[in-house]
Design brief:
The protein is 47% helix and 14% strand. The chain is an alpha/beta fold. 42% of the residues are buried. Bound molecules: nicotinamide-adenine-dinucleotide. The site of nicotinamide-adenine-dinucleotide has 30 residues, from helix 1, helix 4 and helix 6.
């Protein structure tokens, strides 16, 4: 089914990954390109965006790497203008950046709360602010906001209130925009990934294991806990998120709007 995004221009924000391997945004950018989209790969780490754009180019696709910290309004404006200058349109916006910070309200520092909200929510507001008028002028567009099951469930044994609250805000933002722009040919949906095995998780597992006497055993333990938490016995991958994003980006989801698409192997079905 190649060509599901033929002639489309897609911006993937957070198109790199935070370490070696395949994050949600990297998989999404490559999947979009495999289906015919020209992909504007945006990341605050230019090297990470370039790595993704090079993978796409090697496979015969078309991609540009662009450096931007999307918490900064001027950089989001410049990102939008650069994409328009290059390809003259934006059909798909995939908002994928996100960070976490552990702690409840008492333990979490105020500045960490602000940072999580800047990256996870304000950046989405800023990309919407600049990209929506472009889509409106063309009379079409699909926006995909990467949320998390943490927006609707509180995990056992770990507290990260800022992450929970920020992803809840992403869901509300998604649905408010979906309704406001429905009559203008623009759809806005969210993906709620569950436990996915991405480089961000390897980084967290490394952090967890760094002071352990047997580093490898501690790392494997953390990975095993996450695998076991899934009813399938295995974490998902960035490709699972990417395939959901492809569906939402393509015309196959033409009548899907304001939807919160859970991609979690069934974890949220558990009591
Ligand atoms: N991995 C999981 O288990 C999981 C589960 C649920 C939701 N998610 C969500 O999926 C998304 C991506 O997660 P991932 O695991 O692939 O992470 P990742 O850290 O591997 O990739 C995110 C990319 O975004 C970039 N980025 C971060 N802040 C940025 C900013 N301000 N401006 C521009 N780029 C920025 C990073 O440099 C990185 O390349 C996040 O929104 C995360 O909350 C992940």
């Amino acid at each position: 089914m190649a060509g599901r995004l033929k002639d489309r221009v897609a911006i993937v924000v957070g198109a790199g990954s935070s370490g070696p391997g395949w994050g949600n945004g990297k998989c999404t950018a490559v999947t979009f390109a495999r289906e015919g989209a020209r992909v504007f790969c945006v990341d605050r780490k230019l090297a990470a965006a370039k790595e993704t754009a090079e993978i796409i180019a090697k496979e015969g696709g078309e991609a540009v790497a662009h450096e931007a910290d999307v918490t900064q309004a001027a950089q989001v404006k410049a990102m939008t203008e650069a994409c328009l200058a290059r390809w003259g349109r934006i059909d798909v916006l995939d908002n994928n950046v996100g960070i976490g910070s552990t702690g409840g309200p008492v333990e979490l520092a105020e500045e960490d709360w602000d940072t999580v909200f800047d990256v996870n929510v304000k950046s989405f507001f800023l990309t919407l602010k600049h990209v929506l008028p472009v889509m409106e002028a063309h009379g079409r567009g699909s926006i995909i906001n990467v949320s998390s099951i943490a927006s609707i469930r509180v995990p056992k044994g770990i507290s990260y209130v800022a992450y929970n609250a920020s992803k809840g805000a992403v869901n509300s933002l998604t649905q408010a925009v979906a309704l406001q722009y429905a009559a203008k040919g623009i759809r806005c949906n969210a993906i709620l990934p569950g436990l996915m095995h991405t480089p961000m998780i390897d980084f967290l597992a490394e952090e967890y294991a760094k002071d352990a006497r047997d580093h490898n055993a501690a790392y494997e333990k953390m990975i095993a806990i996450r695998n076991k938490a899934s009813p399938t016995g295995k974490m998902g991958t960035g490709w699972d998120t990417a395939n959901a994003a492809l569906f939402l980006a393509s015309d196959e989801s033409a009548y899907v709007n304001g939807h919160l698409l859970i991609v979690d192997g069934g974890i949220t079905l558990r009591a």
